[in-house]
Design a protein that fits this description.
Layout lengths: L11 H7 L45 E5 L4 H12 L3 E6 L4 H13 L4 E5 L5 H15 L4 E4 L15 H22 L8 E5 L12 H21 L5 E7 L36 H8 L10 E4 L7
Parallel strand pairs: 1-2, 1-4, 2-3, 4-5, 5-6, 6-7
Helix pairs in contact: 2-3, 2-7, 4-5, 5-6
The chain binds nicotinamide-adenine-dinucleotide and magnesium ion (MG).
Amino acid sequence: MTTPEHTSPHDETQMALDNPVTRYPKIEPPKQDQPEPGLDAKLEPRADHGEDSYQGTGRLKGRKALITGGDSGIGAAVAIAFAREGADVAIAYLPAEEEDARKILRAIEAEGRQAVALPGDLLEVEYRNALADEAARQLGGLDILVNNAGKQIAIERLEDLSDQQVIETFQVNILAMFAITRAALKHLPQGASIINTTSVQAYEPSPTLLDYASTKAAINAFTKGLAVQLAPRGIRVNAVAPGPIWTPLQVSDGQPKEKLPKFGHNVPLGRAGQPVELAPAYVFLASAESSYVIGETLNVNGGKATP
Ligand code: NAD
Ligand code: MG
């Protein structure tokens, strides 16, 4: 066993283990394109959801969670972490993502937890209104809601950004969040936690992501206002704001293609983040150990300055 006395500050192998610059590789993804929503199964290089690394310590024992967009990227890493912390997990995703979803559902079951598949399209009002009820019915209750599904399509010029795209981005990213959360309140008991995925884009919008960035600013306002509304009821609401994270969102027109090889290189750590690096933030906000944390935004962004 290594104790502090035995660790030489000059032992580079030992130091590298915890160096955030090198803990995950600095990736230079080849230019690639997938139709929306994009599959992790076809992502090059593959993303790290903590399959081989995340270790739970029982922080969410017996909890019941619904995670939208839980098939891939950040939501998949959160699903694996929640299961390893002892929670049963329902994931929502588009039917086209069945292959990715199956892998994550198997990972949840491998922890001896219940895994519930809830495929559907958040553009459909009926589906999103029924989502929380269905999760609660199949899990036998619901006490964690992670609103994480998101649509991001980069468009260079405002003249080329159609009303249709703006409407769909708002539908998936924010209107569905209102609907799912409203329906979830019937089920969420005191001590429950709601966590919304926002973005660094909320305060540092890319010129190519006007619609997307606007929804993320809306998510911030929704999160802070709802947090105050629900605090007296014993339900905590918080947000996680990721920086550039390597997920299928980025290769299904989320970024201009020519930007992919340098994706994430512009943050102080000099590399893109991996989905697994987000999971501890969601676990912290979901668990009772963050009982006094309300309306907060945890920025997990490689060091970008935040307001
Ligand atoms: P991802 O593609 O793995 O996850 C997004 C998920 O959203 C998809 O898997 C899909 O299941 C779901 N989704 C999209 N459209 C949908 C629809 N119409 N109906 C139902 N589900 C739909 O990518 P990700 O990067 O892990 O994204 C997760 C969240 O993180 C999103 O809210 C995104 O905005 C946010 N985010 C990502 C980054 C990043 O750099 N990757 C940065 C900041 C914020
Ligand atoms: Mg996906």
